[in-house]
Amino acid sequence: MIRPSDHIQKLINEQYKTIDDAHSRLTEIWLKDILFSFGWMTTLLLTVVPWIVWFIFRDKESSTRLILGGLWAMLISSWLDYVGVALGLWRYYNKLIPLMPDYIAWDFALMPVTIMFFLQIKPQVSPIIKGLIFSGMTAFIAEPFFLWLGYYKYPGWNSIFSFPFFFVIYLIAHKLAHSSAIKPLL
Prior knowledge:
This protein is mostly helical. It has 6 helices and 2 strands.
């Protein structure tokens, strides 16, 4: 069997202990200072309300295709958020739950629902144009607004850097939602 040496296992176990201790402390902060605060309540609303609105106004015949694009946005944005937090590029202050380092309202509601509405509205418009509009609104309006509100901080990032990421995320979501590979099950 090929396995890491005892020395490597010891070093990694020490790092996991550090992560576990930090998570325990974060949970204490969340329970004492964040849970049921104004920021927590708005985060809850920003997580739930977009889905309610989408459920009411979605194109019911295209729901599956839209969800495919939305799921892509959730997957990649939550992964990129994790990477950004782990690298110290940004940090969040209003956590809905303390189990994740990312901003659930953004990764699991605001971003995918916005993308799904962009995909649904005026589908004949060029995805490049829609992607540029989505990226511009997100990077230069939404991010600075949430920064101003204090929901997060950028110790090592700038909204300008987000623009190309949002653009590519939108284009891939568009490609997935318009894929001819989606066929009914037989």
